Amino acid sequence: MRRSKMDREEALRLVKEKVKTKNLVKHMLAAEACMRHLARKLGGDEDLWGLAGLLHDLDYEFTKEDPERHGLMSADMLKDSDLPEDVIGAIKAHAGHAERYTTMAKVLYAVDPLTGLIVAATLMHPQRSLEAVDTRFVLNRFKEKSFARGANRDQIRSCEELGLPLEEFISLCLEAMKGIREELGL
Fold first, then answer.
1. pLDDT over 50 at 126, yes or no
2. How many domains does the chain have?
3. Does 1 fall in a domain?
4. Is 152 exposed, middle or buried (0-12, 13-18, 19+ CB in 10 A)?
5. Range of 113's domain?
6. Residue 2 lies in a domain
C-alpha cells in the first residue's frame, strides 16, 4: 500500500528529529516561508515549494564536514517519503548536485543564502527586530562585501533569472520572514 504524500506536519517532525541546531531549524523555517510566499507570486504550488524550503538542509548537520554529500544525503533520507521528484530535485540542486531546471529549484537556490543575509542584517540593526528592517537596509548590507560573507551574492542575484529584480526579491523574502518573526525569534 502506497503512503500518502508528506505534509507539512510530517516534514516538521522529521526536521525536529534530524536537526538539533535551533538556528538551522529557524533557517529552514525562514526558507519555507520565503518559498511559500514566492510560490504565490510565481504561480507555484505553495505546499510543495514550502516543503522544499523546509527540508532543504535536512542533512546539513551530517554533511557540514563533507559538503559534497550535502543535498544528496537529504535526497536519500527522503527517498521513501513519496515527495514529488521536483521537490527532491530542488533540494539536490540547491547544493549543486542537479540542474536547476524547475522554477522551484531556481527559487530555492536564491532563497537559501538570502535568508541568512536577512537574519545577519536584522541582528546588526539597532533594534535587532525584523519588523524594523526594510528592503533598503538589507540591500545596503548586500552591497557590503565584508558583511555576511557566507551569503553568496551571485546565488542571491540569480533571482534575476526568474524575472525578479534583486530589490523585489529581497522585499518578498523579507515580507515572508516578517510573517513568522516570532518563530524566528526576530
1. yes
2. 1
3. no
4. middle
5. 8-181
6. no
Kindly provide the b/e burial profile for residues 121-141, where b requires at least 16 CB atoms within 10 angstroms of the residue's own CB: bbeebeeeebeebebebbbeb
Residue 94: Cβ-neighbour burial (10 angstroms; 0-12, 13-18, 19+): buried
Q: The domain spanning residue 84 has which CATH number? A: 1.10.3210
53 within some domain: yes
pTM greater than 0.85 (yes/no): yes
Count the residues in the chain. 186
Which residue in this structure is represented by grid cell 515527495?
A: 83
- 50-98 pLDDT per residue, tens: 999 999 999 999 999 999 999 999 999 998 888 999 999 999 999 998 9
Q: CB count, 10 Å around CB of 174?
A: 24
